[in-house]
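subagent[fold] <- orchestrator: predict structure for attached chain, return tokens only, no commentary.
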Amino acid sequence: MFPIGNQRQRERTIRHEKEKQTKSLDVYGSAFDKLVSSGKTFIRQERLKPFIKQLPKILLISAFLFFTFYINYILFFPSLHSFKDRLSILPKDQTIINNNVYNEYYNYWWNNDINEHDLNKIPFIGLHIINPLRLNYFSGIIENYRRRNEGHDIEIVDLGCGGGILTESLYNKFKTTDHKIIFRGFDISYKSVEQARKHAKLNNITTIDDYLKYEVGSVYDISSFLPNESVDIVILSDVMEHLLDLRLAMKEIRRILKPNGLFLFDTINRTFKSYFGVIYLFENIFGIIPRHTHDWKLFIKPKETIDLLKDFNFTIPVNALEEEWKGINIKLNSFSLWKDIFTMVFENIYNSIIYWMCFIGKTLIHFTCPLVEKHFTPLTIFSNHVKMYDNDLSVTYIGYAIKH
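subagent[fold] -> orchestrator:
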């Protein structure tokens, strides 16, 4: 038995602790009630209703994308190990890139119908969509160069011109200038070169032999066509990420450029975002680009491009990464982008269900019904959201340098 005084003291202590717990519960309970009340008010004001309505779709599509990306990542994980030195000569047997794709799909260079749903027939549609952005950037730099060299003829070479999408666009942009600008396109794919020539003639470019020329030639060696220091501007668009010997290509570019000549380029950065966008989405999921057109290991970081240019005594613009060089990409954190993607996926799911219902109905009871028209395809989403940005070179970046 405890003394009576100690027992009373113990009872008061226990009673005091219970009162404190009760007050704490009251405080937490009051806070919880206020939270629930404010939440009900928030929902009542219809601020969350659109989100809640789309939540099942968002969760389902997010789970699908995460699952497919995880499987894709596991399957292609060996291809994600970067080369120790991207600027060195790379062994062909250690890359999965298929540069022969331009011979395989040579007949589709100018099949740019945005409403076409058979992606196998429009493998180069992405180039048509990005081309206005490239054209706007390159033509601005070319125009400044032309003004500085007023009264002189200018020769511009597009190495890796493919079917002539960019080359012909630049020719059309500058064909009304007072003095002569000669455009010459070179590509190692002879079938692509033939398509470029054919399309130029179909578009009534009668000066093809004088002002717009296409030749079969490699970026590594075009000495049989162009002597030393004979070209004002060299363009290497969507080519660097396909090359296994960047230094050899840059050596040839420097050889043919005149002093103070311009080197214009665009290529793809080697980042997680570029893998997710270019390899995972565009090649493996949506099929906008044929598979193995690119190898993530061959993508080039801006710092590597700067090191390469400096090694060959090219002058890099001041604040190149912040101002002069631009990024071309799609903002993956855009709400409207994912809204369009979710809509597209559910349109496809809905159409698939309707298709089989119609098929069964037609088979059993001769019942027919129309499919719902698609408002979004990978191509329309890509064309609606791809833009040029400052200070974001995380996917594709475009820039220039000057021969010192």
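orchestrator: received. Logging for downstream: The chain has a mean pLDDT of 80. Residues 4-44 form the longest helix (41 residues).
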